[in-house]
Amino acid sequence: MYTTSSLFLRTLAQVGITHAFVNWGSDHPALLEDLERQRVEDGKTALEIITCPNEMVALSAAQGYAQVTGKPAAVIVHVEVGTQALAGAIHNVDVGRVPVLIYAGSSPFTYEGELKGSRNEWIMWLQDFPDQAHAVRQHVRHVAQIDSPVNLTQTVRRALQIATSEPKGPVYLWARREVMEQDIDEALMRAPISMLKWPAICPAALSPQIVSAITSALLASTQPLILTSNIGRSSAAIKPLLALSAHLAIPIISTVPSTTNCPHSHPYFLGTTYLAAGTHHAVLQRADVILIVDTEVPWIPGNRDAQGNFEKPSESARIFVLDGGDPLKSRVGMWHVDAEAVALADAGVALGQIEQAVRAGAEGVLDEARVKEMAGEMEKLHEEWIAGMDKAEGFGVVVPLPLTRVQKGEQPPSPPISPISPVSKRRKVSFSRKSDDMDTATDDTRSDSPSTLGEDAPQSILMGPTRPVKNFTTPQIVASLRRAINELVPPSGALVLNETVTKYPLIWEHTRAEGRIASNLKSSASADAGKSIGGVITSRGSSLGWAIGASVGTILGSRVTDAQDSIGDLERRRGFDFAAAVVGDGCFMFGVPSTVFWMARKYNAPFLTVILNNSGWGAPMGSMLGVYPHGLGSAAGGQKLSVGFGPNVPDHSGVAVAASAGWAWGRRVSAHGIEQGGVRVQEDETNGRSPKEVLDMVIREAVRVVLEERRCAVVDCVLDAI
């Protein structure tokens, strides 16, 4: 016996969907029944069914899957409550232009047994709302109701055609329970189903006039600049980007990136900015031609640099905006860039056109001496940027870490070895890319200083009678992670998922990711590049809690070895050997770790989590200081401002261990030592080692656990508390 649900599941499998991330409910009886029919008749289900005890995690995992494979997954949730429980993840896939097919059942419309599937549970009255799709309508590309099995395959294929066309994004299908329970003719199950006649929209090209305008502008330019956020979503776009940059010595800056757009070692790559005041590169203000490619926010016009100048282009700059899906950002309430031209064009196609035109038109026009001079200037800026990162990653004087022996099973001394307590005096916070880290205080008042710990602080905290050990900084932690990945993971085999909010740019820069598209030019200053880091990604949105759930999806997606089929990108991709989620402690809690690490064990999807633990939400505090830099709140700590998680901070790694029934590996590390389950580890693991050596030891072991033991690992790294 087959039902509409049978046809729905078969259609998904036939058109190329491989995974369904599911959270079942009372609207899914026929789906559950048909999956069991498949197991009985075929020995397995046509789709990989991934049970997700939380809907936001389900959609985050589907997003991670699509980010790796280029293919949409299915997410199945329960009526309007499950639709709402998708929560902020629906924002992320919308803003991130990630194709996902979301399906939700709906309460039955009959209640006297008139049809199979009529109401038979009290909740079905409470869940019958007049516009179930309203909760997600503004975030999806398409909404459709499945009214009948007769046109179900067309309904699904139209939805996928829209989801995989630029601007890509989620689509939402729903159906009443009686429709999905309806018995159908077996002939419907035998009919061929494919996407061959339902293709995504072809990538758009620039018009000849725009190609000519951009080419002539670049050939005459003395200070060209390329800004991008999302080019790296397609390797086909990175190659012409690098070729154009190399040919004309054009600097590249990533603004609020969602993916690796340029190899770190490319000598004209000048880094990443998240557009906090004072962090945009000075080349922006003197650029005479600017190419903005696949970028939502290239600069913030009202921001000023340290000298009081506006961080925006000059009035005379020639600006061209290119975007493959929505160049006017029509889904944003207010958006504008003073541009000479705005073009709907695929980045790879458009940059290829421009690069070819530049080569063809350069003879007799291009000032080679000027290009050579500019190349030297950009290489110098690149090398200075690298030198600044090298300095930020350093530990200064390396002093062995003395530890007081704690016997196995003995309780740690009070206070614990890695305290996270608010600073007694509010420190000045710098969001400048030139500072080592937001973690670094500009005065001597620190959470681990003798003045805040008292004279009875254990010897493990003090390097001597008066010399405190400084907590780790984000650059030091990320550099340690990069070294471990370079040592243990095959070249370009690692993916880093960045959800660190106030530390976003530090992760981008200190991973030094090379990506998977090599530049023909190499900076001599980039010897320590992240050669094994094949990519860094974010959600591209602003709803936090994406990274750890998405990590499960990236591991599952990496197992899909052939992503070239009839839907999604035609570009063939390969998966990753290793994934690391680098998150703040707030993002870790937002991510529902109890669900994520249960899923990771059940579906054998191990990944590393590195928590940058500042015991609170740094972003709201930073926002407050941005508006009230000298207000009353500027002198208050995180706990007083209600953005702190102390004084009794969670055992984050312990949550992962518990959720996975002991399968996950977890440690908490600070410059004062290592904890496991709240108890300091044995002296022989740490005694005589410097803080750098302790950090490297823990992170390297965590990477090894994921790669060799195929278990999740969580390293909770203590920073200064906010």
Automatic annotation (TrEMBL):
Assigned keywords, A-Z: Mitochondrion, Thiamine pyrophosphate
Residue ranges of every copy of the Thiamine pyrophosphate enzyme central domain listed in the record: 212-303
CDD domains xref list: TPP_PYR_POX_like
Residue numbers spanned by region Disordered: 406-468
Superkingdom, taxonomy of origin: Eukaryota
Thiamine pyrophosphate enzyme N-terminal TPP-binding domain span: 3-119
Basic and acidic residues bias: start-end ranges: 433-447
Pfam families attached to this UniProt entry: TPP_enzyme_C (PF02775), TPP_enzyme_M (PF00205), TPP_enzyme_N (PF02776)
PANTHER family: PYRUVATE DECARBOXYLASE, THIAMINE PYROPHOSPHATE ENZYMES
Name of the featured protein: Thiamin diphosphate-binding protein
